[in-house]
Amino acid sequence: MPGIARSSRPRIGVTADATSEKYQVGRSYASMIVSAGGVPIILPCIASCVGDYLDICDGFVFTGGDDPIMTRWGIPMHPNANPLDPARQEFELALLEALERLPAKSVLGVCLGMQLMGLHAGGQLDQYLPDSCATADAHWSKGCHLIEGELGRGQVHSHHRQALTDAGSLRVVASAPDGVIEGVTDDRRRFYVGVQWHPERTADAALGAGLFVRLVESVGHPVGPIGKSPNRARKPTHSP
Question: What is the pLDDT of residue 235?
Fold first, then answer.
């Protein structure tokens, strides 16, 4: 529109969930990105649009959602799993594949997003934690639990019954006291971080809003290994 200058703020693509009639995403993802200094762009899960999204966006948030369709990797689905929309899985895996050729693009994966990152990297998934983890309830219905590692130490908001048991080619950078993998990264890329918790719902500054700040601030700046990255993050501001 005449008189409106194009924003220079980093444009962050946000993957959307799919229902039979809608593409949708939680408002808190957009709020966190805006507070961190970025512009959120909601991405309908249309695989043929991946190239266009890569042209438009400086970074990406792979959001939470239902459970990966494990038959894609030759593994039967657990009877208690709630399968992800097939079109969404196809789209997000295609986007992850394309991003491998663009290591300067910044990526943050949340819950399902981290799981898809790990599976795409050759990892393995526990499809139903109550079968194997005595403290599975802490990750599902209790809301908050402790994590620690290179991303920090603190209470995070979790809501998941699946978790990576092997991160494949990614490096584990956070875990829960019960051994559940909580964070992964790829040190070869500018900013490529997956977390099992929901930072958009986490009160801890570093493990919540701070991750979105790091994502936005990483655009245009070289970032080394997570534990050694320079601290460029500014304090998040509140959205109007």
Answer: 44
Instruction: Supply 23's token pair.
Output: 């593409």
Positive or negative torsion for Cα 113, 118, 121, 126: negative
Cα 65 from Cα 56, distance rounded (Å): 24
212 closest CA partner among 11, 27, 37: 37
β pairing state of 59-62 and 106-110: parallel
- Domain ranges across the chain: 11-228
Q: pLDDT for 2-21, tens place per residue?
A: 555 567 899 999 999 998 89
Helix ranges restricted to H, the chain:
27-35, 50-56, 86-99, 112-120, 136-140, 209-218
The CATH code belonging to domain 11-228 is 3.40.50.880
Mean pLDDT of 37-48: 97
pLDDT digits (tens, 9 = 90+) for 138-179: 888 767 999 999 999 999 999 899 999 999 999 999 999 999
Q: How many CB atoms lie within 10 A of CB 234?
A: 12
Cα separation, 232 vs 230, in Å, equals: 6
Q: Do 107 and 59 contact (CB within 8 A), yes or no?
A: yes
Would the pLDDT of 228 be above 50? no
Tokens 């990264």 locate to 185
Greatest pairwise CA separation for the chain in angstroms? 60
